[in-house]
Write a structure and sequence with these properties.
Helix content: 40-55%
Number of helices: 8
Largest sheet: 4 strands, antiparallel
Structural class: alpha+beta
Strand content: 15-25%
Radius of gyration: 21 Å
Shape: globular
Number of strands: 8
Strand order of the largest sheet: 1-2-3-6
Distance between the termini: 4 Å
Number of domains: 2
Length: 251
């Protein structure tokens, strides 16, 4: 993977997730007018983020609206924002801190949208769903950390069964995220297994049974491609069917 020398090139993920301040966003808009690579990368991050949110989205419980309306009168409004008059380094530091906090912010926002709030789960579903919430939170933290990495790179593809696929990889974190859309059901006794292609040797990298997003297991640092096959439930140590997809990792 390539590392860009200019800081402007590292802002595509933050731009797509709405994490830039007005001044930073305007500056990046101006930068994209002359940088086709950043225009494409920002568009790919926006598409991938939309898929992530759609993959985990669920209707909120019916009681949520009533609870929000009942509590809204007791919520104190925030004071108006007053521009600071400090040194020029303050906005830059603020932007840096916001971008470092981006993975947590993204994870928290998707969890809230997808599951309706941890407090509601605690009331309605008890300990089992609390545990599920923590699992989802950990998964989203891992996914958003890769998406928000300054060196994150994206590649899109399509599997032989019609599934639309995306891989986002970070060389610095040595992690990659796989997203699938329009993925047909694997069928009884079957599962979709992911692979990392290391010089022709396929190594198991996890499973995905329906539309959604997973962090690949194993090390993508020296892998050249990501594969997808249909395997018996529980997976296989080596592929037993022809790959439905073999997508070159983003460079």
């Amino acid at each position: 993977m390539k590392h860009h020398a200019s800081d402007a090139h590292t802002l595509a993920a933050a731009y797509a997730l709405g994490a830039l301040e007005d001044g930073e966003r305007k500056a990046f808009d101006a930068h994209m007018e002359a940088c086709e690579a950043c225009r494409q990368e920002a568009a790919e991050f926006e598409e991938t983020t939309a898929r992530l949110a759609a993959a985990v989205a669920q209707p909120p419980p019916a009681a949520v609206k009533a609870q929000v309306m009942a509590a809204i009168d007791g919520v104190r409004q925030l004071p108006p924002r007053i521009p600071t008059t400090g040194s020029a380094s303050v906005p830059a530091l603020g932007g840096m801190l916001r971008r470092r906090a981006l993975p947590l912010a993204l994870a928290a926002s998707v969890v809230a949208a997808a599951l309706g709030g941890v407090a509601v789960w605690q009331e309605q579903n008890g300990r089992e769903l609390q545990q599920q919430a923590r699992q989802v939170q950990r998964q989203l933290d891992a996914v958003s950390s890769v998406l928000a990495a300054p060196d994150a790179r994206t590649v899109h593809g399509r599997a032989a069964n019609g599934a639309v696929t995306t891989v986002v990889a970070s060389e610095r974190q040595n992690k990659a995220v796989f997203t699938a859309g329009n993925l047909p059901a694997p069928g009884a006794g079957k599962t979709y297994q992911l692979w990392l292609d290391h010089g022709g040797t396929m190594r198991p990298a996890g499973f995905i049974d329906h539309d959604g997003t997973v962090v690949l297991t194993g090390s993508p640092a020296e892998a050249g491609a990501v594969g997808l096959t249909l395997e018996p439930a529980g997976g296989s140590p080596q592929p037993t069917t022809a790959p439905l997809m073999l997508m070159t990792l983003p460079a």
